Structure formats: structure tokens, C-alpha cells
């Protein structure tokens, strides 16, 4: 990794700002060209990106395609098909008292955007926001995660070959470089990662009154009741939980249900783990590994927080932890205080639906909540009585592949959203434009002094 110094950061920022001020990023044609070049890069160099993701996270080629490379390719396709419509000014009604006048909303680029990326989906979480920033006509700096060094280095090498260097740059580095970046003035900062660093970003942005999007994490619950086929629910939970070895921001963090349901669900979870990953996950290329030793140690310490129903094997050299289900977990244990962000799934018994709802609402608002119930009134109660970035009824994770659904958190799980048109709007200013002809002059008769009773009623 080629970490940029503070001096280099200042120079890069000045160069890109100059590019933006020259107006090169504004034309639709420029935006389209960049997006097409980015898509071509992903398609032509897919094998290189797959290798980097394998190196950083032990990610299989298939998972890399579905959750990272193909995901961004699809996002670019959707953006190209909608861009003209999104860029168009939108007429809005004017109040009668202002007639004659017209009013419209004109989206304009914000300027220079900074995208700070985490390691868990190091390609997708760098490029998906980049698509929105380019579509909206911004200059952009992408700061990949230093904890995924192979992907970071590849992005730093390939993006400048494919994209317009006058307006788009990749800056590699760790805390020191990110701190240098954050001391500069940006027009938008888009941060994905932990709430701890999210607070650092928000404080730095406040100095320059820079608007921010914070894509954070949290403990996303999965509630299961007896009305659903438990084997099917178990399979979906296992799929959502153990992809990328549990290092997914929207993975189900824990399962809530009554004790009988959980006792019945547990063997189905074990069976689903075996069906998806076999019994020896260490050598299974479909199953990822833990990003670094610090997270490995943290996760292994959670294994003592409950009774191991299945899994619980680990190997420090390979940074492998087998898919693990924990029962009899104390809700106050560390595994239930922190976001797990790894392949450990606690089962938390509650007495009733009311208790499950109370359990979730008493805690930070999660990035997602998942409900497995065929009872419409149960689903409705989750929709109305809990708050989360998203609600998945019957399936985890999938909501983020629906381009027209805004993706983001609420409260402690984040602020702002993206994907599809929401990405375009996130990186745009919606300028209010009012046009009022000077003739005929109706203002004197309606809003200007001297005031009369009739004017005050307007
Ligand atoms: P991370 O450690 O890679 O950090 C993210 C970024 O912050 C990196 O680019 C890093 O360089 C920078 N950074 C780290 N410490 C910093 C500091 N002191 N000052 C300035 N910059 C700093 O990733 P992470 O934080 O471990 O990511 C995991 C978290 O991200 C989890 O909570 C997860 O739920 C969340 N997440 C959320 C989403 C989402 O879309 N909402 C997606 C993925 C991950």
C-alpha cells in the first residue's frame, strides 16, 4: 500500500477541486463516459479483482462476483439507463398568489466528494458510492480500507488508468492519511464503517460544515416464530449470516424467538450450515476468513458467552472460525453488547412477541431487522413498532439489491442513504429555482407594504 502523506493529500485535493471548477465533471457525456469506463474495467479485469478479494478476505470468486463486482456492474447499468431522467429539472407547482411564476428543482453537483471505505466489501463499498458521485457530476477521492490491502492497491493502480485523473483519484492510507484527508474541505463526505470512526468523521466534517452520509453498523435482529417452515427460515438466516464469514453489515446479528421455537430451529440451523458449507469449513473455498488477528481474537472470546450448539472450531493461523450457533446467551454478555461482525449466531429466548419488540426497541436502532412470520399482524407490528434502516420480511440482506430502495441506517446505524436515484440525490444539491417575470407586477398588490387586511390573509 502506498500511503499518501499530508502534503500529497493537499496537492491532490487542490488538483481535483481545480478539475471540478473547470466544469469538466458537469456534462452528462463526461458522467456517462466515466461510468462506462468503470464498467468496462470491472468486466475486463474481473479476474484481478477476484484475486485481490481472495487475498484480502478469502472470498470465493462466485461470492466476489455476486456481492461486489457484479453488484457494481448492475448499479452502473441502472444508473446509465436513468441518468438523463435524474438530471432533468423537475417542475413544481407555485402558489396562486405568485402567479405568474414558475418553480423547478435543479439538481447540481456538490463539488469535491470524499468516499471513505471499510474492508468487508472493499470493492463494492468503494465503487457503489463512486457511481453515485460521478452520476451527480462531482469530483471524487476514494479512500479504500488499509485492512484490505490487495483491493486497495488494485483500485489505486487501475482506477486512474480507466477514469479521468483530473477529477477522480484514489488515495491509499490508514488513520494518518484519513486524518489528513479529513482536515481538508470537501463538499460531501461519504463514510462507511464503524460508529466509532463515524463520530470522528462527523466532528471533522462539522469544522467545514460539510454534509455527510454515515453508513454504519449495529446488531440486526432476526425474529422467528412458529408460523413459518423453520427449515426454510434457518437456511435463509444461515445464508445471510455466514456469507463473507459473517462480516456483513446487514447480516442477522442474532436470532430472537420463544424458547420452544429456538429449540426447534437450532437443528435446522446446523443442517443448513452443513448443506451450504459442509462440515469442514476450513478447507471450503466458499467460506471466507476473518480479516485480521484483532477481530479473530475478539470473535474467539465470544465463544465462551453461550452453549455451542454447532461449530465453535477455530484456527488462528488460518484466521478461520467455523459457522457457530450459540444458545443460552445472557443478553448482557459481550457477544450481545457489540456488533458481532463474524460467524457467530446467538439465539436469544424471549417470552413473547411483545418481549421481542421491547428487546429491540430498548437498544440502538439497527441497520436492518428481519422477521420470519407468516402472521400478517406480527409483521405489521414489526413494521410499525420498531425502527431500523431496513425491514426484511422473510429474507435477510436482499433488500440492498433492490436498486430503488434507499440503503442506509437510522440513529446509531447511520444517517443518509444511497443506491439508485438516492445515490444521485445524495451527491447532488437540489437547487430551488423560481422565475417570476417583472411584468405584470403583481407583488405590489399582494405582498409589499403598505399592508392591508386583504394582504395579511395571503
Ligand atoms: P475500517 O477499520 O476499515 O474503517 C473504515 C475506514 O475508516 C477505513 O478507510 C479507515 O482507514 C478509516 N479509519 C479507521 N480509523 C480511523 C480514524 N481513527 N480516523 C480516521 N479514519 C479512520 O472498517 P470498520 O470500521 O472496521 O468497519 C466495520 C464496521 O462498518 C461495522 O460496524 C459494519 O457494520 C460497518 N459497515 C457498515 C456498512 C453499511 O453499508 N452501513 C457496510 C459495511 C460495514
UniProtKB/TrEMBL annotation:
Gene Ontology cellular-component terms listed: cytoplasm
UniProt cross-references to InterPro entries, sorted A to Z: Ald_DH/histidinol_DH (IPR016161), Ald_DH_C (IPR016163), Ald_DH_CS_CYS (IPR016160), Ald_DH_CS_GLU (IPR029510), Ald_DH_N (IPR016162), Aldehyde_DH_dom (IPR015590), Aldehyde_DH_NAD(P) (IPR012394)
Domain Aldehyde dehydrogenase: 2-433
A GO biological-process term: aldehyde metabolic process
Positions of the catalytic residues: 215, 249
GO molecular function: aldehyde dehydrogenase (NAD+) activity
Highest taxon of source: Bacteria
Annotated Pfam families: Aldedh
Gene3D superfamilies in UniProt: Aldehyde Dehydrogenase, Chain A, domain 1 (3.40.605.10), Aldehyde Dehydrogenase, Chain A, domain 2 (3.40.309.10)
Keywords: NAD, Oxidoreductase
Family in the record: Belongs to the aldehyde dehydrogenase family.
Protein name, UniProt field: Aldehyde dehydrogenase
UniProt source species: Leucobacter exalbidus
Amino acid at each position: 500500500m502506498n500511503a499518501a502523506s499530508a502534503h500529497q493529500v493537499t496537492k491532490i485535493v487542490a488538483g481535483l477541486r481545480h478539475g471540478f471548477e473547470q466544469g469538466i465533471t458537469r456534462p452528462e457525456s463526461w458522467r456517462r463516459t466515466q461510468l462506462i469506463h468503470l464498467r468496462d474495467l470491472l468486466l475486463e479485469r474481473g479476474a484481478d479483482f477476484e484475486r485481490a478479494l481472495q487475498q484480502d478476505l478469502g472470498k470465493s470468486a462466485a461470492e466476489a462476483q455476486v456481492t461486489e463486482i457484479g453488484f457494481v456492474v448492475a448499479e452502473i447499468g441502472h444508473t446509465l439507463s436513468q441518468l438523463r431522467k435524474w438530471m432533468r429539472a423537475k417542475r413544481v407547482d407555485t402558489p396562486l398568489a405568485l402567479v405568474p411564476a414558475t418553480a423547478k428543482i435543479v439538481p447540481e453537483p456538490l463539488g469535491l466528494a470524499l468516499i471513505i471505505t471499510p474492508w468487508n466489501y472493499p470493492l463494492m463499498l468503494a465503487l457503489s458510492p463512486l457511481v453515485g458521485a460521478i452520476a451527480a457530476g462531482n469530483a471524487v477521492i476514494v479512500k479504500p480500507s488499509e485492512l484490505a490491502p490487495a483491493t486497495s492497491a488494485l483500485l489505486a493502480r487501475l482506477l486512474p488508468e480507466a477514469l479521468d485523473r483530473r477529477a477522480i483519484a484514489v488515495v491509499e492510507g490508514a488513520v494518518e492519511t484519513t486524518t489528513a484527508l479529513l482536515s481538508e474541505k470537501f463538499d460531501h463526505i461519504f463514510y462507511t464503517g464503524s460508529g466509532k470512526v463515524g463520530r470522528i468523521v462527523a466532528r471533522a466534517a462539522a469544522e467545514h460544515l460539510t454534509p455527510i452520509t454515515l453508513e454504519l453498523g449495529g446488531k440486526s435482529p432476526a425474529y422467528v416464530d412458529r408460523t413459518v417452515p423453520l427449515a426454510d427460515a434457518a437456511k435463509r438466516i444461515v445464508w445471510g449470516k455466514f456469507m463473507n464469514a459473517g462480516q456483513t453489515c446487514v447480516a442477522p446479528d442474532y436470532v430472537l424467538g420463544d424458547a420452544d421455537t429456538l429449540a426447534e430451529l437450532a437443528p435446522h440451523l446446523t443442517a443448513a450450515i452443513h448443506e451450504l458449507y459442509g462440515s469442514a469449513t476450513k478447507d471450503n473455498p466458499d467460506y471466507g476468513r476473518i480479516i485480521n488477528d484483532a477481530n479473530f481474537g475478539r470473535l474467539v472470546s465470544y465463544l465462551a458467552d453461550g452453549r455451542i450448539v454447532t461449530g465453535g472450531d477455530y484456527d488462528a493461523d488460518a484466521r478461520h472460525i467455523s459457522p457457530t450457533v450459540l444458545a443460552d446467551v445472557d443478553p448482557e454478555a459481550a457477544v450481545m453488547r457489540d456488533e458481532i461482525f463474524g460467524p457467530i449466531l446467538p439465539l436469544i429466548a424471549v417470552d413473547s412477541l411483545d418481549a421481542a419488540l421491547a428487546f429491540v426497541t430498548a437498544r440502538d436502532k439497527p441497520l436492518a431487522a428481519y422477521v420470519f412470520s407468516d402472521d400478517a399482524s406480527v409483521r405489521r407490528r414489526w413494521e410499525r413498532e420498531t425502527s431500523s434502516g431496513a425491514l426484511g420480511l422473510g429474507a435477510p440482506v436482499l433488500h440492498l439489491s433492490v436498486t430503488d430502495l434507499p440503503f442506509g441506517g437510522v440513529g446509531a446505524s447511520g444517517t443518509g442513504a444511497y443506491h439508485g436515484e438516492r445515490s444521485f440525490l445524495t451527491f447532488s444539491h437540489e437547487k430551488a429555482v423560481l422565475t417570476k417575470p417583472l411584468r405584470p407586477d403583481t407583488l405590489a398588490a399582494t405582498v409589499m407594504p403598505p399592508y392591508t387586511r386583504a394582504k395579511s390573509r395571503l
